[in-house]
Design goal:
The protein is an alpha+beta fold and 133 residues long. It is built from three helices and six strands, in the order αββαββββα. β5 and β6 form a beta hairpin. The two termini are 18 Å apart.
Length: 133
């Protein structure tokens, strides 16, 4: 197991328990990209990413992100296939969604995190198929 895979597993441990308080793993200039979904876009900088994430979670209850599979794509990229679930705070609607997260890592810090609300989009962007992902 590589140090980068260990790093990503250590990030998901607290996340799976609903703890999003640590960003020590993020490079100060991290780029966070929402590749698809309702509001695709990107932001840069650890503080900006922290604000964005807190805003996203403000509208959700019981949000959980459970890693289902980790894939080392190369020396600097880890793909995580996960299942997220929760409830809309205002709507009360429950949701479950299969997602993907691509971590770019350099010198022990995540320099870029790309989130996909649709795994097929991640597979397409990375030139993979679900079977090879």
């Amino acid at each position: 197991m590589s140090a980068n895979l260990d790093l990503v597993r250590s990030i998901y441990g607290p996340i799976e328990r609903g703890d999003y308080s640590s960003s020590a793993w993020a490079h100060p200039g991290i780029e966070y990209v929402m590749a698809d979904g309702i509001e695709p876009g990107s932001t840069k900088g650890r503080e900006a990413v922290e604000r964005l994430i807190s805003t996203l979670f403000a509208d959700l209850e019981d949000y959980r992100d459970e890693a289902e599979e980790y894939r080392e794509l190369d020396d600097e990229r880890i793909l995580v296939l996960s299942k997220v679930s929760g409830r809309g705070r205002s709507s009360g609607a429950d949701f479950v969604q299969k997602m993907a997260a691509l971590f770019d890592i350099h010198d022990g810090k995540v320099t870029r995190l790309v989130m996909y609300t649709d795994r097929d989009n991640a597979f397409a962007d990375l030139g993979l198929t679900p079977e090879t992902a």
